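Continuing the series of single-chain predictions for the mutant panel. This is the parent chain; the variants come on the following pages.
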Amino acid sequence: MSTPPPHQYALLVLVSGGLEELAGKACGGAASMGKILVKVPTLDDVQRFVRECRVAQTILALLTYDLAVEGISARQIETIMYEQSAWDAAEEIVGIERGEAYAFRASCVRDGLHDFKSYDVMRTMGHAVLMRHPDWSVSLGYPDLEYVGIVFDRSVFLGIVVGKPQRGSQARPEKADFNVVPYCDYMSRDLQLGSVPHCTKMRPSVALLLLLFATDGVPMHGNMLDIMGGLGTIPIEAATNFTYVNALSGDINRATTSQAIKNCQLARPHLAEGSSVHARDWDAAGLDGLVEHGSIDWIVTDMPFGNRTELKKADMARVMRAISLVLRPVTGRCVLLSKGYKRLDKAATDVEELELLERRMVIIGGFVCYLSKYSISNDHLESTTVGDSED
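Parent structure:
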């Protein structure tokens, strides 16, 4: 009996911190601290994984990693990169041709608990690459390849971005930000959504993880609603990833809703079997007058925050009351992503029907945020049933 071939290619998948176990289940890898290590035997498997891994913000062809570097320094990271990297396998993943000269840049993401700077790591990484490829050149604005170093405490991960570098300004490369990971959600998606100037666009990979958090990692079906839907990213992800989902996005801003409607139209050729997606304008606080009571299986919403858009206390209370009326009893789930949770808790205390099932701290776009999952309280259902029977 022959033994299977050893794993040859290693990928490092970067996802939203706090949601690693959901992402790990979705793409089949060992998850920790916002990173998932995946090993596959062939290049065909690599290409298939990149096309199908829809929870990834960034995928790196892993060069090497070390979880406990003694006396960590920028110079030591250079030595680790040059001497311990699986250069051939990683370069094969990203399609580097032997004998060809490439332009590259190096980036670093670091937790700050060191006596060296991210720039020092970028410089030593670049030196390690040039020692291996002396005929290559450095280009901040027009790179063919991007090498990324991730340094947290004594842990070091080094890799090459799978896909073209998608970050930085070609017009003004000196303004490019090299201490954040690249944005490459769309390697696994044929759909590119439009935007409007005043509204930020959620990464599709984050939207999908929020949906999986709502369902505890299982496929979603039924009626799904984003009550403050912005550009419609969350409902579109629901309708394109899960079968038999009726997804609806609503927002109070007319210009944003207009773009969300266009995005839903763009998404329709990509919908999963039996699914639909629509958008309309509304005030979420008046949701209970627009949606049939007890008809919504899933509410998943990124709550607005900041001086311009954050909800006032009275509006928050009205929104929570409306949610309690439209959410389906027993099985319905509501997930709210917010910058903080004290105002949310205050609003929820006045809505006895809602029960907090889980709260989780997550890292979204570099911000510490909180996911709160609600359902209709069983105590409320029992008291309602008793009251009905007495009548």
